Predict the structure.
Amino acid sequence: MPAVGRNVPRKEGFEKVTGAAKYVDDLVFPGMLHGRTIRSTIAAGEIEAIHLGFDRKGFTIADCRDVPGRNVVALIDLDQPCLAERHIRHFAEPILLLAHEDRERLIEAEARIAIDYRETAPIYDPGKSDHCFKEIVIEKGDLARGFAEADAVVEGEYRVSHQEQLYIEPNGVIAVPEDGGITVYGSLQCPYYVHRALRVLLGLPEEKVRVVQTETGGGFGGKEEYPSMIAGHAAILAWKSRRPVKLVYDRVEDMIATTKRHPGVIRHSTGVTRDGRLTAIEIDVLLDGGAYMTLSPVVLSRGVIHATGPYRCDNVRIHGRVVATNTPPNGAFRGFGAPQTQFAAEVHMERIAESLGLDPARLRERNAFRPGDTTSTGQKLGTDTSALRVLREAVSRSDFRAKRRAYRGTNRGIGLALFFHGSGFTGGGEVKLASKASLELTESGARILVASTEIGQGTRTMHAQIVADTLGIPYEKVEVEAVDTARVPDSGPTVASRTCMVVGKILERCAREIRRELGGRSPREYLAAHGPLIVTKEYAGPDGLYWDDDNYRGDAYGAFGWGCDVVEIERDPDTYEIRPTRITAVQEIGRAIHPILAAGQIEGGTAQAVGYALLEDVAMRDGRMANAQLTNYLVPTTLDTPEIDVTILENPYEHGPFGAKGVGEMPIDGPAPAIVNAIRSLGLDVRAIPATPERILEAPAIPRKT
Amino acid sequence: MRFTLNGRKRRVQGPPMKRLLDVLREECGLTGTKEGCGEGECGACTVLVDGMPVNSCLIPFAQVRGSVVTTIEGLDGRHPLQDAFIAEGGAQCGICTPGMILAAAALPRGASFEEIRLGLAGNICRCTGYTAIYRAVNRAASARSARRRI
């Protein structure tokens, strides 16, 4: 029986439901110390003096002078120090590291450390920033001609806030000095990012650094680049003390110091004909990157490419910037720029419908991408373009039009959003990554060797299904090697909805070759005759993909997934709270390798977006998150999460394994604009999220089109 | 101090004000109980004390003297909820799962959807959107009634 398309048991399911799965904080090493990070209490300035007011006996203390290699967190740029030297650019910037056998002593010591600063004026408003990390312009057609063709121009400004990933397991690692090198065990998405960062930080050759992923309690992007920082800290302490060092954040530290989703301001100016055809789209995107670059340029890149939403238009200009402020660096979070820009695109689309007096579904239907259309970068869309299909399915399944009429004049509302999401790295990213995957023949089947991490989404299971069916062996006969850089090749990071479509495809090619080698023999027969067999393949993109990074032209992604969400809400007339009551999520993902896992991605991403839309309010005061605890940073509980009705549509992508595209990120793009559009159907002019009761209370009325 | 842990009478030494969570993880070596927030908001550290779900990060060790404590390790691995969580995708990253399963185990038999929703409201899951968890709880309930045992 084939495994693909079937709900086979999750590889590590039993360990997870019995508590046997080992997360980083569950591990103990002999002689292990606990670490603690001492951080800045100002947002901008210089360190003048550090006073350690405690007895240092039994402590390992490290600062920037203890870094054996280069004091940077190596990522896109080398701008971020692992430990501050003199300049402070954000609140909670790491300055000192302490280690001790007894965790309690660390807390006592921290209270006795005093740091003198010379403060300078911080910049918190991205509009006033004097440092741009990245600027991108996308141009298509002739904007002036497009506006000249228009009967009306609709303008608007939309705002999105920070969002905390809030994986339930905080960031954590253990660094162990071993054989003149270092091994780091940790909760992380991208072992080879950490591997490279540690090589640079410690000045060690490749083979002296080893990174092992422990079972990871959620990531959502929050364990994409940040683990390079915390691993660096633990490694510095381990290097100095010559003992294993565990560094696990508590929730407050995790929220106050680690990356968040980029906040932004997005402005649209759209030319449209009376009957709703888009003739010109002009968009300005400004993202707040925080104090250091991290992954901001690529977040902006995905953001601007998705900024038009899934709509055809011949004349487009998109201008994007991500700039520095004196706030903790923002970074990867599921969706990676696209939720921000598609929020703006879809609320703006709703406002176009309102201003023309058109049915919102019809306006979208009129402009939605069809196969053969070109995106803003000039990418010609293939036959797997399903914008119209998901829209029609969601509208009919939710009974959108009848409900919209029925709810008029009540405290109930209904809204929709149409969206798309590119799978894999943007532009030439996959070619540059040159990811590798290996497959090893075993006595009973095969063993997968990849650096792709299981972070809840089902990597091990889904990869094993692809390999099993390609080899023609039972799913149970496929093992998955632990993610350990000493044993698995660099398959690239576990991000960007690429683990199934891109890495899964490489594994499929490995399995095909092994199947050819076997030539009908059993693995046991083959191994007896020829000895061990390991096949390693490197990413090979589909022919004809073209990308011009200087001009932002070409094929931005191998494939796009397509989605449409319809959200029904109720407004509490007394508290102004908005309660979503039902979400219809229709998403086309190529092929669902494991329907329950795929639906799980859609259900979970949708719920996170409910938080993004309504609840999750990072209160930044003086450059510092003022509500860095779960008591007052609210994420959806069972009571906040409505019924989510998921429909998966399939429209195979010819270069994906068994037709699969990406699925992880797309579900978080749609619900926030659909919720705000539902609020707008109550006549409230909301253009920013989170749409808290305070915002609902203050929202002006939308002038009714008669 | 004496208490019953996962069906066995235990005598465990530890500071009386130490969090039950830490005693379970460090003194008893039972790491299936997880810490998510340390302030009783996320429910990842949920255990059963005398059959009631509690946040073990908020309970001083002294408070369980003479009580019956059940952690995820106290279910036998074939509990209907454990099977159902695997089958329905109720566990993704797995970090909330032990607490979620114990909170679900404390639900009354034949709980309605609203009772399930309320009973699990103290346990945050960031992965699933709870949908698969409801499916798992319902599946376990059907399996239990089919087997006619608790």
About this structure: The helical segments of chain B are 20-27, 80-88, 97-105, 113-119, 131-147.
